[in-house]
Specification:
The chain is α/β, with parallel strands linked by helices and about 210 residues long. It has one domain: Vaccinia Virus protein VP39 (Rossmann fold, 3-Layer(aba) Sandwich). The N and C termini lie far apart (about 50 Å). It has helices at about 5-15, 30-35, 65-70, 85-95, 110-115, 130-135, 155-160; strands at about 50-55, 75-80, 100-105, 120-125, 140-150, 175-180, 185-190. It is about 30% helix and about 20% strand. Helix 1 packs across helix 2.
């Protein structure tokens, strides 16, 4: 293993042994490393070379910790609303000695109001449908930056239900980047203009009353 792989395998061991909070649905360090951590690696090519990046709904730190290990020149924020998870991930980061990542416990809608269009890229993994992710992430990203999310077999359905409404959030049409034998997909939007100040809407509304309807 190279140094990054060794650090990430140790990360898998810490996730597997964590008792403070349930940080991943996968059990056992080997499976966490293979099924969860390595699954984040295809996203590395879409990261900026420098600047601030945020992982929204980070949970146990995926993909943000993977990004931090492989891209030490980035400043990475892990955002999650569950305090137990945030505290556990802070302990893991300290144990790994990773210096370019911080954990913030907040709802994304609340956080976006005070950190509006501050990031070069906002990403999410296993957070919500593509349209809901776009609404939650776009307000955090500056013009010229990118929004990224990981998707599976339903990606075409999730994209088509929004149709051509992405511009309502200041986003381009999404680009679909398949990997894993085309079973998985990284969806990437460019932030082409400022997001209207009406977004983010109040907490919880993005997932119950869709912006495109």
């Amino acid at each position: 293993m190279n140094p990054q792989e060794s650090t990430l395998y140790r990360y898998a061991e810490l996730l597997a042994s964590c008792t403070r909070a349930r940080l991943t649905g996968t059990r056992g360090a080997d499976d966490i490393y293979t099924l969860q951590i390595q699954d984040c690696l295809p996203s590395l090519e879409y990261l900026p070379d420098s600047g601030k990046v945020i992982d929204v709904g980070s949970g146990g730190g995926l993909p943000g910790i993977v990004w931090a290990v492989y891209r030490p020149g980035l400043s990475i924020t892990l955002l999650d609303s569950v305090n137990k998870k945030c505290e556990a991930v802070r302990e893991i980061i300290a144990a790994l000695g990773i210096a370019n990542v911080e954990v913030v416990c907040s709802r994304s809608e609340e956080f976006a109001r005070s950190h509006r269009e501050e990031y070069c890229l906002a990403g999410a993994r296993a957070l919500a449908s593509a349209g809901v992710c776009a609404e939650l992430l776009s307000p955090l990203v500056k013009t010229g930056g990118h929004v990224l999310t990981f998707k599976g077999e339903r990606v075409h359905d999730e994209i088509s239900e929004v149709a051509d409404k992405w511009g309502m959030l200041g986003l381009s049409k999404p680009a679909l980047n398949f990997y894993g034998g085309n079973a998985k997909c990284i969806v990437l939007w460019e932030k082409v203009k400022k997001c209207p100040v009406s977004y983010p809407r109040r907490e919880g509304l993005a997932g119950t009353k869709y912006f495109w309807e």
